[in-house]
Design goal:
- The complex is a heterotrimer of chains A (267), B (419) and C (340).
- Chain A contains ten helices and ten strands.
- With 267 residues, chain A is of the alpha/beta class.
- Chain A has one domain: P-loop containing nucleotide triphosphate hydrolases (Rossmann fold, 3-Layer(aba) Sandwich).
- The N and C termini of chain A lie far apart (46 Å).
- The longest helix of chain B has 39 residues.
- Chain C is mainly alpha-helical.
- Chain C has a domain of 237 residues: Orthogonal Bundle (MetI-like fold), CATH 1.10.3720.
- The chains are: A alpha/beta (267), B mainly alpha (419), C mainly alpha (340).
- Chains in contact: A-B, A-C, B-C.
Chain lengths: 267, 419, 340
């Protein structure tokens, strides 16, 4: 499969420059502050996990990165989030275009109640990524292969996606997200509704996907964070307590709260 | 002390009785409502079912060359020809008033019927033969047994003399009854035996079509905007209050609006399905909007998130994903609204759709009437035979309403929520 | 255990992962300022949708203006006080232009009392029947009975009013008349009673379904509390459920009354046009809606007081029903919030 490579290299960042840089991000829901002065760098082609007790703001932060919070009318975001050095809250940014570059996978598998093929083809179609049917077929196959689903569904692409098992549905949602070829994929507790076997498959998949995409995953499970991520950020009550290499966070946390959380004392 | 759980004190008894009474009040209330429903529908069916049958009378007519000129059929005085034949069948009748009664056995349309038969079958010409004609309304009722013969002669519309003639015809095999095609194929008529509902039915269909094509797109777009896009501000809530109130405004007020605005200010043609449909569409608008919003609300937010999350614009997310999922519910609401519009009478009276319309309307800017208005008109008519027609027209209306509601139920069942 | 996981994870944590060629071809320009789809089209769609939403306001404005303007020209001929407080209604038009005296009189009081009388009879029928139906359906009926009875009651609501009118005029009214004769009462053939009774039946499903919703919205915990104290079912309903549901139920009754006042076909067909000022349900009365129909069917010249009076009546009807609807919607919404 060939896709144009012009203008890509200019985007190739210096290997030490993070792909996402958040600086002093505050989020308010009405008068309630949900995030307090978050500054976090996220590296390219790595999996970064956001962990913390529920209600700590990790999902809120995730949703700032593709501006899904815009949908909540009472939500207000201040500060700066840059992706590829472009401020995504800048005036000239089109949210729709942003989300085409920052894909998202949700907590509960939410395939469209359409056929498997249409689910994957929908994104490329609205973003006009392929010009003809055979291109599209190829793109759908590529996405489903990437998501490790092709072998299971190749004979029933026209069946309704809601008939798949939970794990398959979630992989379909991943295939659907990568079909648009985003640079960043956000995953909001993608395994919380799945059984352990389906979870294991998805985790393996995430690990493979980081070769092509930068992945940020919110997770409840510390084991999952340890298994899949190279970087970890620990949130607590709207604050970013600590972030760094996953290994360091888990083996030698600097903050007492992190220590308490990973040993199971708070949660 | 006896067992406290089987307390048989007076107080306990009266409480049990009160409980029983209360329960029976509920049963009785429901019983009365349903009994009324069954009595009303039953009595209408009872009165209207005889409309399915209509009666004919046969007389021998001489169509020889000296009676009808084969080259010039349309010049023939068919009415006179039939009258002559009638007189020949009952040679004993001499007085003028009796002769008039005799002619009245057949429908006023008899000459036209004969002409039609001859044109359809020119072989009839040249010989004398037995031909069938529609009986007049009173004779029709008599033949169907709907006339109470125990009453005084002066109290019924048909005299003993006529009854005797009919008895004679019947005995000689010159009467027959058959399925009443005319009721479904004719327009309105002053003569009950010829009156049919086709013109009203077509009028209703045209009116409803206008109503649908105006209200459906407007209502669905308004519902989508209010549910998916409208900011929560004063204007939106004002629109919402407005819609809820419009849903409860008496229908006749919409008729006044149509009269004052559509007819007098915009000068649209009076009595037409166009105006009737517009007025009804304003009435059904709130019904459809409210139903459509409820249906849109039931689409899970995760579908919107999924679409938006992959870079679909809000419009794309709504029209590609949310609306298709809400569509069955929206259609159900629309059908219910259309059923309401089909039964609506008062606003149509205001815009003049009460005229006597015999011809089947062929476009939305021709004067027309509608089924419920036809019912209203016939209910007002003095002829006894129109009573049967009114009941039958109500049955037709109810059949359409039942069909529409069944469609709505089927839609709802078929697309029951899958999420 | 986590340490183990980290160990196996370690091997991936190299600064530049081993990327196949594909990774390059995957990338596309990181363009977040322009989209592929057309913005203009979307603005157009949004604009059309806003316009459609405004139709609702336009209809209301249209109703208010058309009723208002025609009413103003009516009130230039007949004073408001005569219209509202006059007790004689006979809207005769002059046969000749100079026949000023024959302009007719436009006192709406007999119409208002007639409307209220018929609506009152209707509510007397519909309130107990509708309420008890709702109570039975929500508190006593088995699921199966409910599934049968509810749709049947909804059929009552779906039957066109012209059918009720026909039934009232041709079956109920003669029946009442002959019953009256048998017990020595003089019942008019177009009595308020016949129209009111049938109208009451028509309103039952409205009241029962709204009240049913309201009663169902009363939290089960309230019921459990009462039953737990040893109350019987009916005591629980009367002393706990109904008092809690009263605001919602009164809202539904107001809506029913508004329906009764605005109902047209039943009264046109069964109540007649005699503008009697009476409270006797056995006599013939006329209503606002029946008069509007009588005044406006057939040919009308638009500048006669007779025709214009219909709009004044329409305005009166609109205002009264609007007030009733507003109050009842407010009550019902407030009630809903309370238990949501």
């Amino acid at each position: 499969m060939e896709i144009k490579t012009d203008a890509i290299n200019s985007l190739k960042l210096n290997k030490n420059t993070p792909i996402i840089q958040a600086k002093n991000v505050d989020v308010f829901y009405g008068y309630k502050q949900a995030l307090d002065n978050i500054s976090l760098d996220i590296p390219e082609n790595k999996v970064t996990s956001l962990i913390g007790p529920s209600g700590c703001g990790k999902s809120t932060f995730l949703r700032c990165i593709n501006r899904m919070n815009d949908l909540v009318s009472i939500c207000r975001v201040t500060g700066e989030i840059k992706i590829f050095n472009q401020d995504i809250y800048a005036q000239e940014v089109d949210v729709v275009a942003l989300r085409a570059n920052v894909g998202m996978v949700f907590q509960k598998p939410n395939p469209f109640p359409k056929s498997i093929y249409e689910n994957v083809a929908y994104g490329p179609k609205i973003h006009r990524l392929s010009s003809n049917k055979s291109d599209m077929d190829e793109l759908v196959e590529w996405s489903l292969r990437k998501a490790g689903l092709w072998e299971e569904v190749k004979d029933r692409l026209n069946e309704v996606a809601t008939g798949l098992s939970g794990g398959q549905q979630q992989r379909l949602c991943i295939a659907r997200a990568i079909a648009v070829k985003p640079r960043v994929i956000l995953m909001d507790e993608p395994c919380s509704a799945l059984d352990p076997i389906a979870t294991a498959i998805i985790e393996e998949l995430i690990d493979e996907l980081r070769n092509n995409f930068s992945i940020i995953i919110v997770t409840h499970s510390m084991q999952q964070a340890a298994r899949v991520s190279q970087r970890t950020a620990f949130f607590h009550m709207g604050n970013l307590v600590e972030s760094g290499k996953t290994k360091n966070i888990f083996t030698s946390p600097k903050d007492e709260r992190t220590q308490n959380y990973i040993t199971g004392r708070i949660g | 002390m006896t067992n406290m759980f089987t307390n048989t004190s007076l107080l306990r008894k009266s409480r049990a009785a009160a409980e029983l009474r209360f329960r029976w009040f509920g049963r009785i209330a429901i019983g009365i409502s349903l009994a009324f429903l069954f009595i009303m529908v039953g009595s209408i069916i009872n009165k209207g079912k005889s409309v399915l049958i209509s009666s004919d009378i046969a007389i021998i007519i001489d169509l020889g060359p000296n009676q009808v000129d084969p080259n010039n059929i349309n010049q023939t005085g068919f009415d006179a020809l039939i009258k002559r034949s009638l007189r020949a069948t009952f040679p004993e009748i001499t007085s003028r008033s009796d002769k008039k009664k005799l002619y009245g056995l057949l429908s006023a349309d008899m000459g036209f019927e004969l002409q039609k038969q001859i044109i359809a079958n020119p072989n009839l010409l040249g010989i004398s033969q037995k031909l069938w004609f529609t009986a007049s309304d009173d004779v029709d009722l008599l033949l169907k047994g709907s006339v109470d013969l125990t009453t005084q002669e002066g109290d019924r519309r048909i005299s003993n003399l006529e009854i005797n003639w009919i008895a004679k015809l019947k005995k000689s095999g010159n009467t027959r009854s058959h399925f009443n095609k005319k009721f479904f194929m004719n327009g309105d008529s002053r003569e009950p035996e010829l009156a049919g509902i086709l013109s009203a039915l077509v009028g209703s269909i045209l009116t409803l079509s206008v109503c649908f094509f105006v209200s459906f797109p407007i209502a669905i777009l308004a519902a989508i905007y209010l549910e998916e896009f409208a900011p929560k501000n004063k204007i939106s809530s004002f629109i919402e209050v407005n819609i809820n109130n419009l849903a409860a405004v008496p229908s006749i007020v919409f008729g006044l609006l149509g009269l004052a605005l559509l007819l007098n200010v915009f000068g649209l043609p009076r009595s037409t399905p166009l105006v009737g449909g517009l007025v009804l569409s304003l009435m059904t608008l709130p019904t459809i909007i409210i139903a459509a919003r409820a249906s849109l609300r039931s689409v899970p937010p995760s579908i919107r998130e999924a679409a938006l999350g992959m870079g679909a614009s809000p419009i794309q997310a709504t029209f590609h994903h949310v609306v298709p999922l809400a569509l069955p519910g929206i259609l159900t609401g629309t059908i219910v609204g259309m059923a309401q519009a089909l039964g609506e009478t008062a606003p149509l009276l205001m815009i003049g759709m009460v005229a006597f319309i015999a011809d089947v309307p062929s476009s939305i800017i021709e004067p027309a009437t509608a089924l419920p208005v036809q019912i209203f008109l016939w209910a007002d008519a003095s002829e006894r035979a129109f009573l049967e027609k009114t009941s039958a027209a109500i049955m037709v209306l109810l059949v359409f309403l039942i069909l529409m509601n069944l469609l709505a139920i089927l839609l709802r069942k078929k697309f029951e929520k899958r999420f | 255990m986590i340490a183990q996981l980290l160990e196996s994870n370690e091997q991936f944590d190299v600064d530049s992962p081993n990327m196949p060629n594909e990774a390059v071809t995957l990338s596309k320009p990181f363009n977040i300022t322009t989209r592929n789809s057309s913005n203009i089209g979307e603005y157009a769609i949004k604009f059309i949708m806003v316009a459609c939403s405004m139709v609702a306001i336009a209809v209301t404005v249209g109703i208010v203006f058309s009723l208002f303007f025609e009413s103003i020209s009516f009130f230039q001929r007949v004073s408001i006080s005569e219209f509202l407080f006059g007790t004689k209604w006979s809207p005769q038009t002059a046969l000749r232009a100079d026949q000023v005296a024959a302009e007719g009189s436009f006192g709406a009081v007999p119409l208002i009392t007639g409307t209220l009388l018929i609506s009152f009879i209707a509510m007397c029928v519909a309130t107990p029947l509708g309420l008890f139906s709702a109570i039975y359906l929500s508190e006593y009926a088995s699921r199966r009975a409910r599934n049968v009875i509810k749709p049947l009651l909804e059929i009552l609501a779906g039957i066109p009013t012209v059918v009720y009118g026909f039934f009232a005029a041709l079956t109920v009214a003669p029946m009442l008349r002959s019953t009256g004769e048998n017990i020595g009462l003089n019942v008019s053939s177009e009595s308020a009673l016949a129209a009111g009774l049938v109208m009451g039946i028509m309103i039952i499903p409205l009241i029962s379904s709204l009240s049913d919703d309201v009663i169902n919205a009363v939290p089960q915990s309230l019921r459990d509390a009462s039953l737990g104290l040893g109350s019987t079912n009916s005591e629980t309903i009367r002393k706990v459920v109904l008092p809690a549901a009263i605001p919602g139920i009164s809202g539904s009754l107001l809506l029913g009354a508004s329906r009764a006042i605005g109902e047209t076909m039943i009264v046109v067909m069964a109540a007649g046009l005699a503008a009697n000022l009476t409270a006797n349900p056995l006599e013939a009365v006329t209503t606002i809606t029946a008069q509007i129909v009588a005044l406006l069917t057939g040919d009308q010249e638009f500048d006669s007081a007779k025709t214009l009076s219909a709009f004044a009546l329409g305005l009166l009807l609109f205002i009264v029903t609007l007030i009733l609807n507003m109050i009842s919607l407010k009550i019902v919404n407030k009630y809903r919030e309370q238990y949501d």
